[in-house]
Amino acid sequence: MTEKEFTGLTSAQAQERLKKDGLNEVPEPKFNFFKEFLSKLLNLSAWILEAALILECILGKWIQSSFILLMLLFAALNGANQKRRSRKVLNSISKELTPTVSVMRDGKWQYINSKELVVGDLVSLKAGDILAADMKLVSGNVSVDESSITGESKPINKNDGNELFAGTTVVSGSGLAYITATGANSRAGKTINLINNSASPGHLQQLLTKIIFALCSIALALTVVVLIVAIIRKDNILDLLPFLAMMFIASIPVAMPSTFAVSNSVEAKKLSKDGILTSDLTGIQDAANLNLLLLDKTGTITENKTTVSSWTSFSSLSNNEVLKLAGEATDKRNPSIIDTAISDYLKSKNITYSQPNNFVPFTSDTGYSMAEVDDYNVKLGSFKQLSKIDPNAQNEISRIDFTAGRSVAVLINDKLAGVFILKDKIRPDSKKALAELKARGIKPIMLTGDNQKTAAAVAKEVGLTGKVISIHDFNEKTNVNDLAGIADVLPEDKLNMVKLFQKEGYIVGMTGDGVNDAPALKQAEVGIAVSNAADVAKRSSKMVLLKDGLTPILEILDAGHRVYQRMTTWALTKIAKTSELTVILTIGYILFKYLPISFNAMVLYSILNSLVVITIATDNVKVSYKPENWNIWKLTRTSLIICVGWVVFGTVFLIWLSQHGYSAGQISTMSYLYLVFTALITVPITRTTKFFWQSKPSNWIIYVELGDAILSAALAILGWAMAPISWADLGLTILIALVAAIIVDIPYHFYIKKVN
């Protein structure tokens, strides 16, 4: 059968089958809160607490046992709840990140959401499509990656009559297929979406993991010091073990995954409302570090449409005959912007054309589409590619101005028949947005398949300064700072470019749309698929734009900087507070022969501190307008300024209390309050470059900190879970913490100003 003889469903037939079979989707299993809660009881920090709980039960210390159980339940409940929140955001995004499919309805090719596919639909397949239902190939040849269902990475060639399965990817070729099964009846048995589920951790997450390891190492070292001192003094080791376990647990950032997930999810939700979908959360965090951006010209710098500005014929055939043949070499099933531009041009000339006898769509490997029409073989593609087929083409083009736009040649029986010059319209926001990117310290480089002269003209028009070179002149010696753009770029060139720039130390962002852009989009720290991108490009990227232009990229950068600032606050707070707690406990034990805070108070401190830290994910932050650079030593030095101040004041306070007749229980309670109040003040200090009283945090931070302070004060006055103290002692502790905060913030403030 020829392509003309295949027909699809009518809209009425499709609606009838949709009512009968339902949408092409399978409801996602509901989030199992209890299962997630149980999983949080099976990790390293939980195991340590569980061991301490068993030990306390053996020793018959039921009150302490109940506090350990409280800590266990808090960590598990909090972790499960935050996972539920982030899962809800990602689920809402995944519903929007479903493939679109070219389907024939009522005798016309149109794009529909894959969820609306029904059995019997005739669909068009091309390279880069992720199949959303089971189907039978009836025309054409395709190569399919079936690793999602078989585990085999080698593509499988499929011909007429072969079955294709949902979830697999068309690697090359094209064809027509009839849908045979949808939704739960398909082999995959699940809804196909474009969320990237196999992403590796981002730079920020990797750094935070290093911080966790460093904190645990410090806590472990100090724990060993306390044990050695206890052995020398012949103290009861069994009595110390629960305290030491709790000290170690306090250093483990129980709230870190929650804070991290919430912060990213908050921004992902905000971006989705602005038409930017997040398929991989690491794309948001890495956007803060971005310092080099590779931009596809079409759809980003220029509008996602083009028009024919001139046509020159070189054929002995009449002008209308050549144009009609050129029209038959355009793709009607999956039209590109070039196909659309040529079709619109022919329509304006009242030239009609029919379906060819045989049609092979454009691929980046060949550089052209091809149609067989009666005795004519027609090729439509870039002049550069087609001139390799007709060596005489170069002699015919003296009267064509290639600087005027993109050239598309027509070959009839492998002889140059004509050249279209297509003009892209510059987006009105491009020049301003590119200037904004450069002001933020990001180097934008335009990538285009156009010739060098055309690319240079576009670069000049949008204010990109520097050289525009051909991809053939690009190598490891190319100075990035001298570049405005790279011309003659093929999609497969982009992966090498991204790797080379990363090798030179750049954090690379890239926009792309084609199937061959997918490897480069996946390699880039911030891969951005534009609105008309192939399914596989969307799945390989970290961000997907639903609208064209550069403005959405600026919004991604802002989101990244907000996450960076919040997680910087988290890192500085965590390092400072963990160091303060472990050092004060160690010094107190060495000086006074007991840990200067009760076990119950330590559990409460860990829980209340975690609650505050989680709210950092909602903080009001000031966006930085320069690429950030994560430096663990810089973070450590910065946080140690705060830590040293807290430790000095805390140690002096402990010594003063011990010399003025306070009991061990009162010292423990006042030490607990000092640690709580300084922890609460650390967040306002680390979240801003101003003095902490000059910048207002988010309402959530204020409410939770006030709640923590009031609860801790009430427990201390009432003597619940700790020894009671007087109102005067409470006031004294608050005063010491406030004085310490003001004195600590002064050197911290000037140090931050200096390093920034």
TrEMBL record:
**NCBIfam families membership:** ATPase_P-type
**A Pfam cross-reference name:** Hydrolase
Question: This chain belongs to which protein, by name?
Answer: H(+)-transporting ATPase
GO function term, MF aspect, one:
ATP hydrolysis activity
Q: Which UniProt keywords apply?
A: ATP-binding, Hydrolase, Membrane, Nucleotide-binding, Phosphoprotein, Translocase, Transmembrane, Transmembrane helix
Q: What is its main location?
A: membrane
EC annotation? 3.6.3.6
Please spell out the taxonomic lineage of the organism that makes this protein: Bacteria, Bacillati, Bacillota, Bacilli, Lactobacillales
SMART domains named in the record: Cation_ATPase_N
Q: Which InterPro entries match?
A: ATPase_P-typ_cation-transptr_N, ATPase_P-typ_cyto_dom_N, ATPase_P-typ_P_site, ATPase_P-typ_TM_dom_sf, ATPase_P-typ_transduc_dom_A_sf, ATPase_P-type_domA, HAD-like_sf, HAD_sf
Q: How does it sit in the membrane?
A: Multi-pass membrane protein
Q: Where in the cell is it found?
A: Membrane
Instruction: State the family it belongs to.
Output: Belongs to the cation transport ATPase (P-type) (TC 3.A.3) family. Type IIIA subfamily.
The residues covered by the Cation-transporting P-type ATPase N-terminal domain are 1-61
Regions that span the bilayer: 61-80, 211-232, 244-263, 597-617, 638-657, 669-688, 700-721, 727-751
GO annotation, cellular component aspect:
membrane
